[in-house]
Design a protein that fits this description.
Number of helices: 13
CATH class of the largest domain: Alpha Beta
Number of domains: 2
């Protein structure tokens, strides 16, 4: 069995109150405790670093306190509320919730697209029926709770790596996670500030189909002015389609003799071998891949261990595989111009691997913000099926050491960091792309490139 690194995308929720108006199946306290014990044992067996949490006395005390509250039948919904904060220890480990939220409402979603900055919520787009709420206004409270409190609560339940959840990640899923954590509301009581003026307003919720958002296609390729091109890649997925697209694009670059290429990798996830395939169009020199991979040995990955134990060292229940230089596939369409990679907090999982290889091996120029995953972090996903509630938990199985990794607290930093202002974020002004074009113009003038 071959394991590859993929991004995890799941719905989760939290709140330590039991739902009383639920039509969902309920489980007896003994069944809930059995699922908790099964879940924690499974994570301890499978997850590469979970034991660091489970062996902590504070963690154990918190766990025992939670178990003592389980004195009445509970739903899957309640189980999520209790356990998600305890088990979501990295960006690839999380419970999955796909059930109903009660009481049901016809239009339960928060009717704004928002921006979070300095622990404040700004209106980015008003989807409510109240035309007086404008872009840039600050939402100070929702249904009587301060916005900063809501942000802090949501940040604890969204899977993430590192000490904090990126505010833009919270903002992007706010309407979904607010519903999952706080429940369904048909209306929202808001305190809104515009400059020094505060106003209390009530707005109705909206349906999920009303919350439209523009989505990019998986690939976007454009020929720009002055012998440059732009290439957006959503993720390293769909291998056949991916290879057909990048092969065609690099053929066009060669035919048109393009000298400058901007690759937009402000998104993450997928297969690392497809990231290697893209690298093979950018360099014909050997390059450093991962420093190493440390796999927790368990019954869940026995096939993988048997297939790879000759490539590494087994010690203390872990298989450690060290990586030598990677030799790229020879490409007739090798790009010989200058390459610029746009990156930011959305650059995650396989995308972090891609930009770390770029940075470590000096293959291209990185522009934007720091990547969304540390250079030493967990990956590879194994599902855990709970015996009674039948819920699924996804768990990391391995710890990856990215190229040039030194510690767990750092991710890939761009060669040119571009700071975004509040106005940039509110108006979706693409300063990263603008900066790349400026660097190209500067290089063209310096080298008199036509």
């Amino acid at each position: 069995m071959k394991y590859v690194w993929i991004i995890l995308s799941v719905f989760i929720l939290c709140s330590i109150t039991f739902s009383q108006e639920s039509l969902a199946d309920l489980f007896e306290p003994e069944e809930i405790v059995e699922d908790i014990d099964f879940l924690l044992k499974s994570l301890n067996d499978i997850h590469p670093t979970f034991n660091q949490y489970l062996s902590n006395p504070d963690y154990q005390n918190n766990l025992e306190s939670i178990k003592k509250t389980i004195t009445q039948p509970m739903s899957k919904y309640d189980f999520f509320k209790l356990m998600q904060p305890l088990i979501s220890v990295d960006g690839h480990t999380s419970l999955r919730f796909d059930g109903e939220i009660y009481p049901k409402k016809e239009a339960p979603f928060f009717p704004f697209k928002i921006l979070i900055r300095n622990n404040q919520i700004y209106v980015k787009e008003n989807l409510s029926a109240n035309p007086n709420i404008q872009k840039g206004m600050i939402i100070e409270s929702i249904n009587g709770q301060q916005s900063s409190t809501i942000i802090n609560l949501l940040s604890k339940y969204i899977p993430h790596d590192g000490a904090t959840t990126h505010p833009e990640k919270i903002a992007g899923v706010f309407h979904t996670f607010y519903q999952l954590i706080y429940g369904n509301f048909s209306e929202f009581n808001l305190t809104i500030r515009n400059g020094e003026k505060r106003e209390n307003v009530i707005v109705n919720g909206i349906k999920s189909e009303d919350f439209t958002s523009e989505t990019k296609p998986p690939f976007d390729f454009q020929i720009l002015d002055n012998n440059a091109a732009y290439f957006y890649i959503e993720g390293f997925r769909q291998p056949d389609l991916f290879m057909v697209n990048i092969d065609s694009i690099f053929t066009i670059l060669q035919e048109k003799n393009i000298k400058y290429l901007i690759i937009d990798k402000r998104s993450g996830g997928g297969f690392t071998n497809l990231a290697d395939s893209l690298l093979s169009y950018l360099t014909n020199k050997s390059y450093k891949q991962f420093e190493k991979k440390v796999v927790k040995i368990s019954s869940a990955n026995r096939d993988y261990i048997d297939e790879n134990k000759s490539n590494g060292l087994i010690s203390d229940g872990y298989l450690t595989i060290e990586y030598g230089p990677a030799i790229p596939v020879k490409r007739n369409q090798l790009f010989n111009g200058k390459t610029y990679i746009l990156m930011g907090w959305e650059t995650y999982s396989a995308a972090t691997y891609f930009v770390s290889a770029i940075k470590c091996n000096q293959i291209a120029t990185l522009i934007g913000g720091e990547a969304g995953q540390p250079l030493i972090s967990n990956g590879d996903i194994q599902g855990i099926n709970l015996p009674n509630t039948k819920m699924i938990c996804y768990s990391s199985m391995s710890t990856y050491y990215f190229p040039c990794a030194e510690n767990r607290d750092e991710s890939v930093k761009p060669d040119y960091e571009v700071k975004l202002s509040l106005e940039d974020l509110l108006n979706d002004t693409d300063r990263y792309l603008e900066h790349a074009i400026k660097l190209i113009d500067r290089d063209r003038v310096a080298n008199k490139t036509e």
